[in-house]
Amino acid sequence: MNVLYLEDFAVGQTFSSGRMRVDVQEIKTFAAQYDPQPFHLDEEAAQKSIFRGLAASGWHTAAMTMRLLVGSDFQPAGGLIGAGMDELNWPKPVRPGDELHLKIEIVGVRPSKSRPSQGFIKVRTTTLNQNDEPVQIFVGNLLVIARLPASG
Amino acid sequence: MNVLYLEDFAVGQTFSSGRMRVDVQEIKTFAAQYDPQPFHLDEEAAQKSIFRGLAASGWHTAAMTMRLLVGSDFQPAGGLIGAGMDELNWPKPVRPGDELHLKIEIVGVRPSKSRPSQGFIKVRTTTLNQNDEPVQIFVGNLLVIARLPASG
Predict the structure, then answer these.
(1) Is-contact A57 A128, C-beta < 8 A?
(2) Are the beta carbons of A138 and A66 closer than 8 angstroms?
(3) What local confidence, expressed as pLDDT, does residue A90 receive?
(4) What is the CA radius of gyration of chain A?
(5) Measured between CB atoms, which of B50, B59, B89 is closest to A62?
(6) Using one digit for the tens of pLDDT, what is the confidence trace for B62-95?
(7) B45 touches chain A (CB under 8 A)
(8) A9, A143 in Cβ contact below 8 A?
């Protein structure tokens, strides 16, 4: 897998991820620890909620997306280091048994004005389910290392 | 604890949470499952990284923030249901042993045009460490239920 530096990125590049199956027990375990609301914990309560069925916490979807990103072919030098987000939303619930994968698009590249050794890329990561329906859209800015600048 | 409906919210209201101590093992467990990068997993590797020491995944901080929100005195009717985010960033790393708490501010209230039974509130949630330094700022929009409208 190639590690990519600031200079290697360009607007329009796309990357992809593997797939991850969403387990019902993992939905409940994550929710019990971090988002203990009835519609993430219990099928019957979830049926009566706005979700009309058990749904993963949005933060769980974000965490699963991060897991897919770390394992994807999108490998910036220095790692995936978030420097703020422009957009994060969950257009559709994630259900037990869903199979998630990512579409990763570079939508901005910007050298740092103060530090020539680094810069920022803006990345749109769309998390899709097995029917290619977006379940999360997240546009974030990442800190990326530049190659050593040529001297002189 | 009072459950709050759309009509109960007003710009300027604030709410607060309990406190949560960040455990080193929990940082590593979360990272191993969802964000397996060296600076979230291993003290020695983290020392050599941009974080200069073990730091929690930003998504872990977001998840811990959600846990504090669910247990806070901010209790919208119908639960905490995210409808998109305006801002999410992590101004400072979260370290093992940090003690987190929230400052929750209502910054917008808007009835739904299409559905009078619901509306949206915009909430700024600042996650602070034991030195009252912000470690996460997140401005999100939540779906909130209105009281039944008076008939006639």
Answers:
(1) no
(2) no
(3) 94
(4) 18
(5) B59
(6) 999 999 999 999 999 888 988 888 899 999 999 9
(7) no
(8) no
Nearest to A36 among B59, B70, B82 (CB): B70
Number of other CB atoms surrounding residue B116 within 10 Å: 12
Residues of chain A neighbouring B64 (CB-CB closer than 8 A)? 34
Contact B59 A36 (CB under 8 A): no
The span from the CA of A131 to the CA of A140, in Å, is 24
Count Cβ atoms within 10 A of the Cβ of residue A105 and give its class: 0-12 exposed, 13-18 middle, 19 or more buried: middle
State the pTM of this model: 0.93
Instruction: List, for residues B89-141, the tens digit of each pLDDT value.
Output: 999 999 999 999 999 999 999 998 898 889 999 999 999 999 999 999 999 99
Query: How far does chain A reach from its first CA to its final CA, in angstroms?
Result: 31
All residues at 6 or more sequence positions from B139 whose CB lies less than 8 Å from its CB, including other chains: B85, B86, B87, B88, B107, B122, B123, B124, B125
Whole-angstrom Cα distance, residue B43 to residue B55?
9
Q: Contact, B143 vs B118, CB < 8 A?
A: yes
The single-letter code of the amino acid at B10 is: A
Spatial distance between the Cα atoms of A34 and A49, rounded to a whole number of angstroms: 19
Instruction: Name beta bridge partners: B138.
Output: B88, B125
How far lies A111's CA from each of A6, A150, B50, B70, B109, in Å? 8, 15, 18, 39, 38
Query: CA neighbours within 13 Å on the CB side: how many for A56?
Result: 31
Helix (H) or strand (E) run with residue A67 in it: helix A58-70
